[in-house]
């Protein structure tokens, strides 16, 4: 077998998420079906992580072990897969990797982008691709609130339960390091970038949704910091919509 690393971009709106599911069309299922048509045999792929229904990606990564007898070059793999995939999923790069490389376990960090549209009318070209917030809030306070998340913290109050959490998790189970969290203003569009060593279920959406409450004056930055310092309290209930979230890139050594 020969292990290849694929980079793909997708519009998550038509899909039930990345991970294969019994009901609903997932991005993983769609890619594996395209691989099966090329190879005339099933082939499983392993991704850097899941994205939820409606979440998009600029550079999701996954690896697959293709038969050694398959003489296709990385460029041919890219062309062949794109020919069998819907336009909402594109393979943007393919490269060979070591046999022991793993797209998920070898990842050392990820960066997400979240888009907010502040205009009174949401452009149809941003429908399903940005969170539309026409009411007033303070962009500078939003940026200050996002800065509170930087550093290493126990983020359990900013993670949704997936249902598979251990009963007695180790002390560092909820620890994550946020290297940077910034807000860039481009007219009516806000781009929030969050770069960290790892993220829990719906964590980025909960970070953004809670920071938005601070920007509206319904919470304060000290309250936000206290939630990180006291992780055993009630979880935040402010979750930003999936529409505006993009997996921007995955980092490897």
On the 0-100 scale, what is the average pLDDT?
95
Determine the strand fraction and express it as a percent band. Answer: 25-35%
Number of helices: 5
SS-derived structural category: alpha+beta
SSE series: EHEEHEEEHEEEHHE
| Shape descriptor | globular
Question: Would you identify the regions where 5 or more consecutive residues have pLDDT less than 50?
Answer: none
Largest sheet: 10 strands, mixed
Our measurement of the CA-to-CA distance between the termini, rounded to an integer number of angstroms, reads 23 Å
How many extended strands? 10
Radius of gyration: 19 Å
* Fraction of residues in H or I helices: 10-25%
What layout of secondary structure does this protein have?
Layout: E1 2-10, H1 27-39, E2 46-47, E3 56-66, H2 74-84, E4 89-96, E5 107-117, E6 131-132, H3 139-148, E7 151-154, E8 175-186, E9 189-196, H4 203-215, H5 221-229, E10 245-252
Parallel strand pairs: 3-10, 5-6
Antiparallel strand pairs: 1-3, 1-4, 2-3, 5-9, 5-10, 7-8, 8-9
Helix pairs in contact: 3-4
Protein described:
This protein is α+β, with helices and mostly antiparallel strands and 253 residues long. Strands 1, 2, 3, 4, 5, 6, 7, 8, 9 and 10 form a 10-stranded mixed sheet that branches. It starts with a strand and ends with a strand. The model has no long low-confidence stretch (mean pLDDT 95).
């Amino acid at each position: 077998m020969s292990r290849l690393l694929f980079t793909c971009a997708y519009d998550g709106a038509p899909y039930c998420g990345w991970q294969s599911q019994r009901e609903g069309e997932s991005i993983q299922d769609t890619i594996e079906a395209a691989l099966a048509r090329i190879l005339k045999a099933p082939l499983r792929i392993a991704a850097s992580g899941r994205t939820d229904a409606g979440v998009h990606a600029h550079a999701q990564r996954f690896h697959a072990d293709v038969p050694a007898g398959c003489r296709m070059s990385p460029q041919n793999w890219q062309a062949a897969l794109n020919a069998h995939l819907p336009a909402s999923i594109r393979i943007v790069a393919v490269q060979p990797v070591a046999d022991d490389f793993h797209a998920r376990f070898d990842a050392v960090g990820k960066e997400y982008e979240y888009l907010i549209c502040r205009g009174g009318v949401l452009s149809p070209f941003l429908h399903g691709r940005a969170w539309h917030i026409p009411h007033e809030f303070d962009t500078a306070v939003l940026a200050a609130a996002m800065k509170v998340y930087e550093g290493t913290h126990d983020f359990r109050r900013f993670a949704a339960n997936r249902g598979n959490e251990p009963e007695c998790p180790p002390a560092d189970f909820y620890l994550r390091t946020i290297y940077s969290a910034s807000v860039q203003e481009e007219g009516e569009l806000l781009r929030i970038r969050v770069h960290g060593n790892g993220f829990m279920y719906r964590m980025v959406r909960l970070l953004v949704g809670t920071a938005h409450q601070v920007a509206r004056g319904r919470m304060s930055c000290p309250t936000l910091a206290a939630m990180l310092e006291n992780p055993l309290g009630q979880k935040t209930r402010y979750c930003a919509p999936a529409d505006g979230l993009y997996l921007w890139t995955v980092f490897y050594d």
